Amino acid sequence: GAVVSQHPSWVICKSGTSVKIECRSLDFQATTMFWYRQFPKQSLMLMATSNEGSKATYEQGVEKDKFLINHASLTLSTLTVTSAHPEDSSFYICSARRSNQPQHFGDGTRLSIL
Amino acid sequence: GEDVEQSLFLSVREGDSSVINCTYTDSSSTYLYWYKQEPGAGLQLLTYIFSNMDMKQDQRLTVLLNKKDKHLSLRIADTQTGDSAIYFCAESMDQGAQKLVFGQGTRLTINP
Fold this sequence. Notes:
Chain A has 114 residues and is mainly beta.
């Protein structure tokens, strides 16, 4: 149990495009979902925490207008990178958890902006 | 502040035991985790331990916690080539949102 699916796994697009990444908890209801960014050979950097039906809480230095997070249901959260530029290229990973349980991670999305 | 430290690299021979170490600074950590990341993939939860426990064993994995020294270790017995990955130690203190603080990750390499 506790499977988290992330889609797409890889996306390449032109500069200026907006890209949406989906994160779904397949076999449980996630009270909280998290979005991380990982640079090559580095650890995960938490971008934001989102609870279903409420606004996401962004970490310091993360632009909320740039990285739009929607958590419309207990099984789905989306991250939209708006007007993406090459510096937004990265590996984005989501995680989900239910109350008093550990976070379970998706397989990540590799975003490449040309 | 919260800080989690790990050594960056570990190399072991196939069949030997691997021991990956982690230190953390905040004594109010409630849960400590080990995650595994294979190339190009997300993180897989391997095991976790509550701060009031000293040890947890699950098949080939043994977690030891020394709360006094704020030291956590993961021992992998009979290391196999499939164990090659990056291993992240993480702690959480925030009971509500369960935010994780990660170490830098230890890259485990298996030699034949």
